[in-house]
Amino acid sequence: MVANKPLPPVAPEQNEVGEFLSRLPADTPPQLIEMISQSMYSGPVPPPAMMQQYEAALPGMADRIMTMAEKEQGMRRRDNAWIMANDTLRIAGSILVSFGLIAAGVYCGMIGQPWLGGVLGTSGAIAGVAAKLVHGKQP
């Protein structure tokens, strides 16, 4: 097992994975080598070292990547604003429909149609409760 053998030190200027792997002992388990050789990042902006490599390969690439990330962030903000507005309109619409059904039920009861008034008023109350259950608590 390699646990008893210390790994050779890596100088800060030698950041290439290949150089590091070539300095490992011959009996290093392949699982350890695989763990060492994998790296990843999440998001539109790569880590600084990779950004420098992009810039060295194609001058101006770092600026293009940052511009792309800024545009993506702007689109996300816009989309979130539309989602919030849509949710607000849906809730307001369901409340208006519920109150309209209740008002129609009261009106029907006043003009001598108690069964129709009861059905409309009850459906309005049920719609209000159902909307609250479906939408839940809004932040």
Q: Structural class of the helix and strand makeup? A: mainly alpha
Segments where pLDDT lies below 50 for 5+ residues?
10-14
Mean pLDDT: 78
Quaternary state reads: single chain
SSE arrangement, N to C: HHHHH
Beta-strand percent range: under 5%
Coarse shape: elongated
Helical segment tally? Answer: 5
Walkthrough of the structure:
With 139 residues, the protein is mainly alpha-helical. It has helices at 17-22, 30-37, 48-57, 61-110, 114-135. The radius of gyration is 32 Å and the shape is elongated.
Offer a concise description of the structure.
This protein has 139 residues and is mainly α.
Fold topology:
Elements: H1 17-22, H2 30-37, H3 48-57, H4 61-110, H5 114-135
Helix pairs in contact: 4-5
Please describe the structure with a list of short key phrases separated by commas or semicolons.
139 residues; mainly alpha; 5 helices; 0% strand; elongated
